Amino acid sequence: MSQQPVRISRQHWQALLDELEDARRQRHLVTYRALVERLKLPSPAMQILTAALEHLAALDAHADRPLRSALVISQGASRLPRPGFFECANRLGRFIGASDGFAAASWHAGEVARVFEFDYPEAP
Q1: What is the spatial distance between Cα 89 and Cα 49, in angstroms, rounded to a whole number?
Q2: Which of residues 66 and 77 earns the better pLDDT score?
Q3: pLDDT at 6 exceeding the cut of 80
Q4: How far is CA 38 from CA 30, 79, 91, 96, in A?
Q5: Among 31, 59, 61, 102, which residue's Cβ finds the most Cβ atoms within 10 Å?
Q6: Please, what is the average pLDDT of the chain?
Q7: Distance between CA 78 and CA 108 in Å, rounded?
Q8: Hey, how many other C-beta atoms are within 10 angstroms of the C-beta on 8?
């Protein structure tokens, strides 16, 4: 049995882009859980959100832009994205190293600063 790819509706995709743009303009980070709740994503919500954030990271990387998905973090004490974000950034050639620890935290802080400073075009 082949697994269907997880898809996000056009409406949810636009809402995700809007939420990330609001976070960028206000210079704050948002948790995965808060996004799932605000976007009212259907089940499997976290997988849909993760797939959408990875797709957005690929779009940003290919356009040579800072990764907007860096604005989404875990609720935990680390205040970092989940390990999958760093694995995705690694696949995109943006980050090399372990998904936890000082190197990840340092790279993430720099990427967030770049996102805050970047002026994204209307369309992803």
Answers
A1: 16
A2: 66
A3: no
A4: 11, 19, 29, 32
A5: 61
A6: 93
A7: 11
A8: 20
Judged on CB neighbours under 10 Å (0-12, 13-18, 19+), 74 is: middle
Spatial separation of the C-alpha atoms in residues 92 and 70, rounded to whole Å = 13
* Interval 13-48: pLDDT, tens: 999 999 999 999 999 999 999 999 999 999 999 999
The torsion of the CA quartet 27, 65, 21, 28, rounded to 10 degrees, works out to -20
Query: DSSP labels for 31-64?
Result: EHHHHHHHHTPPSSHHHHHHHHHHHHHHHHHHTT
pLDDT band at 1 (very low <50, low <70, confident <90, very high): very low
Quote the tokens at residue 21.
């743009």
Tell me if 107 sits within 8 A of 114, measured CB to CB: no
106: its two tokens: 């340092």
Q: Indicate left, alpha or beta for 40 from its phi (over 0: left) and psi (-120 to 50: alpha).
A: left
Find tokens 């609001």 and name the residue. Answer: 22
pTM (two decimals): 0.92
